[in-house]
Amino acid sequence: METREWNKCYYEDCLPALKAFPNGYFDMLITDPPWKTGKKSGWREKKGKPINMKDIDYMNYPVEWHLQWITEARRIAKIVIFCVPLKDENEWTKMVDPKGKFILYFKNGFRPTKISLRNSYSPYFTCFDKPPKIKPLYNIFGIVIKAGFLNKTKYKNPSAKSSSFFKYLIKGFNAKTVIDPFMGSGYTAEQCEELGNVKWIGFEIDDKNKPDVEKRVAIGKRAFLKTKDKQKVLF
Ligand SMILES: C[S@@+](CC[C@H](N)C(=O)[O-])C[C@H]1O[C@@H](n2cnc3c(N)ncnc32)[C@H](O)[C@@H]1O
Fold it and tell me: φ, ψ for residue 110 (rounded to 5)?
């Protein structure tokens, strides 16, 4: 059985690591995977690499590889939530056959152009083995998260997202143990730390993200202490 420390990001390929966790080890797997599925026709190839994407080397994998991590995700976590880009929604829907799906408005800030300031939307897929005993969340509309250069705090990872939405999901599903296999700048870790009573484990293949993850973990811890202080004042 896999023994990993909680509240730690491991800088390695997540797939072998996922395979080593026992069934149902985590309450929730929440992630923002590398989106591309090995096709040669994406905007990235047509238009050249956008400036902010130049550091990302690990975004393009074949469908078979995605199916492997998704199978492992469903095996080791009771609830699996991940986002995919609008452009590839149909392809991912066929591939994953999600039990639930909700739409998340998403301010796309990848590129510093007018286009990037338009709202686009990104579907979030939710997969449950056992549906949680809470109101379904997949009807949520209109939550705007900020990505890329629109994020107020600057992170090295060009796909960095603002994260209170993820906190809402973790809290809403009452998850106490969370894994994020594609940690990026570490929004999942930030939110688990902020909630205070949620243990997390992250994987990220590219250790260039380490300073981002450390920054976000520290932000989460500070936010938790602030709420604790507020509670002390109130009671
Ligand atoms: C879409 S980004 C995640 C961004 C994240 N949501 C954030 O807010 O920063 C996907 C991440 O998966 C990482 N990644 C790609 N292949 C991986 C693998 N095999 N194992 C672990 N991480 C991987 C990439 O380096 C990238 O940082």
Answer: -60, -40
Q: What is the distance between the alpha carbons of residues 83 and 62, in angstroms, rounded to a whole number?
A: 17
Bridge partners of 66?
none
Residue 16: pLDDT above 80? yes
Ligand 1 atom with the shortest distance to the CA of 159: 4
CA 28-32-35 angle, 5° bins: 135
Q: Could you list the residue range(s) of the whole structural domain that residue 206 is in? A: 8-234
Q: Which residue type occupies 71?
A: T
Amino acid found at 78: K
By residue count, the chain amounts to 235
Residue 26, in any domain of the structure? yes
> Rounded to an integer, what distance in angstroms lies between the CA atom of residue 14 and that of residue 63?
16
pLDDT in tens, 68-85: 999 999 999 988 888 877
- The domain total for the chain is 1
Angle between helices 63-76 and 89-96 (to 10 degrees): 50
pTM: predicted TM-score of the whole model, two decimal places = 0.81
98 SS3 class: coil
In this structure, which residue's CA is closest to atom 6 in ligand 1?
32
In a domain, 169, yes or no: yes
Q: Is the CB of 45 under 6 A from ligand 1?
A: no
Please indicate whether residue 31, judged by its CB atom, sits closer than 6 Å to ligand 1.
no
Residue 149 counted as domain residue: yes
Nearest alpha carbon to residue 93 among 125, 61, 70: 125
Residue 3 lies in a domain: no
CA of 197 to the centre of ligand 1 (A): 25
